[in-house]
Design brief:
Helix content is about 40%, strand content about 25%. The protein has about 180 residues and is an alpha/beta fold. Helix 4 packs across helix 6 (about 135-155) and helix 5 runs parallel beside helix 6.
């Protein structure tokens, strides 16, 4: 059995990525910590947050980290605690809106995820399958999101892509035998 301490769960909007990540976290006997990056600026977002909260039982603790995610992971992670971060896409939006450097914050996040001793599950949107955004900010976001996802995939032992509620293991990738028989 392969043990993966760091897992990235990718997917599109409403793909089932959050449910997949939560189900994975719930297989652990450890304390469960949900690190939320969303901010409730309007009624629709408040409803989304409430929906996510309703899907977690009393065994979950919640920590809000809309910007200072690396610090929250360092504070919350441990060998007896599984940390689920949902989601990196909203976190990146918060970073860009705060006019911070997404490259620096991505590296700080990567360092934190690599350093902690407990399991960490990261949820992120895959935004590279859509059209090229019409605005400069949209293109900056799409490019930063792609780089963030690549960086997190690099440091995670496992990467899962979710489409239509179906998880597909991307990493570890199958090893090909290219020898001729």
């Amino acid at each position: 059995m392969n043990i993966h301490r760091r897992v990235l769960v990718l997917g599109g909007a409403r793909s089932g990525k959050s449910r997949t990540a939560q189900n994975l976290a719930e297989t652990a006997s450890a304390t469960r910590v949900f690190v939320a990056t969303a901010q409730a600026f309007d009624d629709e977002m408040r409803e989304r947050i409430a929906h996510h909260r309703a899907g977690r039982d009393g065994r979950w603790q919640t920590c809000e980290a809309p910007v200072e995610l690396a610090e929250a992971i360092r504070r919350e992670a441990g060998p007896d605690r599984v940390v689920l971060v949902d989601c990196l896409t909203l976190w990146l939006s918060n970073i860009l809106l705060a006019e911070r450097d997404p490259g620096q914050d991505t590296e700080a996040l990567a360092l934190a995820v690599r350093e902690v001793t407990g399991p960490v599950i990261l949820v992120s949107n895959e935004v590279g399958h859509g059209i090229v955004p019409a605005t400069p900010l949209g293109r900056v976001f799409r490019d930063a999101q792609g780089r963030l996802n690549q960086r997190m995939a690099e440091i995670c032992e496992a990467v899962i892509f979710v489409a239509a509620g179906c998880p597909l293991l991307l990493k570890p990738a199958p090893v090909l035998d290219l020898t001729l028989a």
